[in-house]
Design brief:
The chain is an all-alpha fold. 78% of the residues lie in helices and 0% in strands. Helix 1 (2-13) packs antiparallel against helix 4 and helix 3 (35-45) packs antiparallel against helix 4. The longest helix is centred in the C-terminal third of the chain and has 32 residues, at 49-80. The protein has helices spanning 2-13, 17-24, 35-45, 49-80.
């Protein structure tokens, strides 16, 4: 149960774009507090398309790993019953 809660919390924390963007109106200093905001800032404000796309791909891969762990644990526990 603890693993499921930790994985869901990590997945949810990776989706923290909307609150940071709304609260700061995308006027963030250079060190961005979260990756989704950094990706958007690089893509649309600085016109660094490659750098922003690389951040997006890394964010996707990190999310995919945690989602895979969550699904693997869920299906494994269902097959035991």
């Amino acid at each position: 149960m603890t693993v499921v809660v930790v994985v869901i919390s990590i997945i949810d924390s990776l989706r923290s774009f909307d609150l940071v963007y709304i609260m700061t109106r995308a006027g963030l200093p250079t060190p961005h507090p979260c990756w989704p905001t950094s990706c958007t800032s690089r893509l649309f404000n600085n016109y660094k398309m490659g750098y922003g796309a690389a951040i997006a791909v890394i964010l996707f891969l990190i999310s995919a790993v945690f989602i895979f762990i969550y699904l693997w644990r869920t299906f494994r526990s269902e097959l035991e019953y």
